[in-house]
Write a structure and sequence with these properties.
The protein folds into 3 domains: about 90 residues, Phosphorylase Kinase, domain 1, CATH 3.30.200.20; about 220 residues, Transferase(Phosphotransferase) domain 1 (Transferase(Phosphotransferase), domain 1), CATH 1.10.510; about 170 residues, Mog1/PsbP, alpha/beta/alpha sandwich (Protein Transport Mog1p, Chain A). It is about 30% helix and about 25% strand. It is built from 13 helices and 23 strands. Strand 17 and strand 18 form a beta hairpin. Helix 3 packs antiparallel against helix 8, helix 5 crosses helix 7 and helix 6 runs antiparallel to helix 9. About 45% of the residues are buried. This is non-specific serine/threonine protein kinase.
Length: about 550
């Protein structure tokens, strides 16, 4: 079907095919002439499943025509115009406006990623298109750069290829019993088979914005199994190029569809960026109004008060694995994916992260973290390092001599970020956050400082829980350890666990802490122990 030899055929007694423009899984697209109205159009011949019995094939054609006509009722400047839906030689054909331009995917491939302003413009156009479609009960289900056209001369953004669209309350246009869509841009709830709704299209738009800004989806991997795991379970890391639009991108890439950023709010935020050069937070979200105090232990992130982690359940991940096996033969076991994903409430990886040492700092003992995995805590009667000299940086770490007057070993790849009185060393994507603060001593010594900080924990750390302060020593000096879990500063990053030790030395109060996802508490403890064991003031 659809060879060059088919050119100059006349479809439905009206549309004369002139040249093939492209071919995809849904069919062949032709440039054609509407001989009745004297205009150029695009004609898409939909692929027909030859394996279906005649009755089933007829039902599929009827369904295709009925639902394509529903899509044709959509009227929006950024949605492809559908002129007609016809049958020819028992083939379904959709007649659309002919766009003189190229896809966003082609544009990225030829000229590279777009800037933040252009990405915002594209996002606004697509959000308007999706709002119109969703209000009419039509889901696109395949939002990706290849299905977005940029018209030559006008730069008009046009959402096209509703070929696998779904009309609310009806079966799909391409129902064959198999998964449809592009995995890199497919929402996790669709991957796990739990639901499909307007929110799924918005997730896909979030991935598309990342691709427009960086050149590829943040979920691109070398295998289908890797893609599905990235979408459903792995940590979500928007590209650095998305920083100007990060509140929108993170809001759209929220795994819980009930908490995902809505189309109207996302459009408002992108318009604000174009007007001011800064992207506001979603409505109802603001940074803490109080100035920094020693109790604010982490990089501040604005969040709704009620927002919590939206990591998928183990069942959802298992469903995804079964989907991989059923649809692609990916050869990945459910056990492998379940072991390698971050835990929902304390499951730790079975081996240390690359570049970390399995050794522990001297003078530590093992005890369970509250509500989490086994972790080491400084012994109340032992010091974490000799008073004279510190341990050298172990393999996978480097010694950072900080301008603030201290040095310590930090994992290779961590970057420095000062924030007022605090200094952070952050892993790529800020999965691990190592903080240091040097101040004057407080009343009650280290234990008093930590107890007051813990009392403020619910205010300074969203979802604060399982906090405890214990008396300890550091190199023979009085110290206090504060350990707690909390919900993180966004639902995207999920629940975190923090280790924090402070001690007095030569008239100064030194405070060192590490936070990480609860499923990576073991690696976080490793970084914490190494930092304390190598810390040296200058």
């Amino acid at each position: 079907m659809g060879t060059e030899g088919d050119a100059f055929r006349v479809i439905a007694g009206r549309y004369r095919l002139e040249a093939r423009l492209g071919r995809g899984g849904m069919g062949v697209v032709w440039r054609a002439a509407d001989q009745l109205l004297g205009r150029r159009v695009a004609v898409k011949e939909l692929t027909q499943d030859g394996s279906l019995p005649d009755d089933d094939a007829r039902q599929q054609r009827d369904r295709t025509l009925r639902e394509a006509r529903a899509v044709a009722q959509l009227h929006h400047p950024h949605i492809i115009v559908v002129h007609d839906v016809v049958e020819h030689d028992e083939r379904s054909c959709i007649v659309m406006e002919l766009i003189d331009g190229r896809s966003l995917a082609d544009r990225i491939a030829e000229r590279g990623p777009v800037g933040a302003a252009e990405a915002a413009r594209i996002g606004i156009a697509l959000l308007g298109a999706l709002r119109t479609a969703h209000e009419a009960g039509v889901l696109h289900r395949d939002i990706k750069p290849a299905n977005v056209l940029i018209e030559s001369g006008t730069d008009r953004v046009v959402l096209t290829d509703f070929g696998i669209a779904q009309v609310e309350g009806a079966t799909t246009l391409t129902e064959t019993g198999s998964f449809v869509g592009s995995p890199e841009y497919t929402a996790p709830e669709r991957m796990s088979g739990t639901r499909t709704g307007p929110e799924s299209d918005l997730w896909s738009l979030g991935a598309l914005l990342c691709a427009a800004l960086s050149g590829e989806s943040p979920f691109r991997r070398d295998s289908l199994g890797g893609i599905l795991h990235a979408v459903v379970a792995a940590e979500i890391r928007p590209p650095v190029q998305a920083e100007p639009l990060l509140p929108v991108v993170r809001g759209l890439l929220e795994r819980d569809p009930d908490r995902r950023l809505g189309a109207a709010e996302a459009e408002r935020m992108l318009r604000a960026f174009l007007d001011t050069g800064r992207t506001p937070q979603p409505a109802g979200v603001s940074r803490p109004a109080a100035p920094y105090t020693p109790t604010q232990r982490d990089v501040p992130r604005p969040v709704p008060a009620a927002r919590r982690s939206s990591r998928p359940s183990r069942r959802a991940v298992l469903v995804t694995v079964l989907l991989v096996a059923a649809t692609a033969g990916a050869g990945i076991s459910a056990a492998a994916l379940l072991i390698n994903r971050d835990g929902d409430g304390g499951g730790a990886p079975t081996s240390p992260a690359p570049g970390t040492s399995a050794s522990r700092a001297p003078g530590t003992s093992t005890s369970p973290a509250p509500g989490g995995p086994a972790s080491t805590v400084p012994s109340p009667t032992a010091s974490t390092a000799p008073a004279s000299g510190t341990r050298p940086a172990p393999s996978g770490y480097r010694t950072a001599r900080d301008p603030a007057g201290f040095s310590l070993a930090v994992p290779a790849g961590f970057t420095r970020e000062p924030q007022g009185e605090r200094v952070f060393y952050l892993s790529p994507g800020e999965t691990f956050r190592l903080g240091i603060k040097v101040t004057a001593p407080g009343p009650g010594g280290p234990l008093g400082v930590m107890r007051r900080a813990a009392a403020e924990g619910p205010r300074t750390n969203p979802g604060y829980r399982d906090g405890r302060v214990t008396e300890a020593t550091h190199r023979g000096r009085p110290a206090a350890l504060w350990e707690f879990s909390w919900s993180g500063f966004s639902a995207v990053e999920g629940p975190r666990h923090t280790y924090d030790l402070c001690w007095e030395e030569d008239g100064r109060l030194y405070d060192v802490w590490v936070s990480a996802p609860v499923g990576m508490a073991r690696e976080a403890r490793e970084h914490f122990d190494v930092a304390l064991g190598t810390f040296l003031r200058h």
